[in-house]
Amino acid sequence: MNGIEFESLDGEPAKLFFMIAMPESGSNMHLKALALLSRSLIHENFRNRLYKAKTNEDVIKILESIDSID
């Protein structure tokens, strides 16, 4: 996977992009989701599973496999 030039701090091409959308009434849920995602992305195995995903459904399954944000 080559990635996309994104002016990253390490100078490496970016390979994963995420958008987190929450309702205004979602309090700090977006921060909890971001923290959970960040903790998961530290693990090479998790990142590799995302790199190998072929469909949207594959990505959703992988994201659903991480701990709850509640």
What's this entry about, in short?
The chain has 70 residues and is mostly helical. The protein has 3 helices and no strands.
**Cα radius of gyration in angstroms:** 13 Å
Mass-distribution shape: globular
SSE string, helices as H and strands as E: HHH
Percent in strands: under 5%
Contiguous uncertain segments of 5+ residues: none
The number of helices is 3
What is the strand tally? 0
Main sheet: strands, sense, barrel: none
The amount of helix comes to: 40-55%
Provide the residue-averaged pLDDT.
Answer: 89
Structural class: mainly alpha
Q: Termini distance?
A: 33 Å
Comma- or semicolon-separated keywords:
44% helix; 0% strand; mainly alpha; 70 residues; globular; single chain; 3 helices
What order do the helices and strands come in, and which of them pair?
Blueprint: H1 29-41, H2 44-52, H3 56-64
Word description of this protein:
The chain is mostly helical and 70 residues long. The protein has a domain of 29 residues. It is 44% helix and 0% strand. It is built from 3 helices and no strands. The termini are far apart. The model has no long low-confidence stretch (mean pLDDT 89).
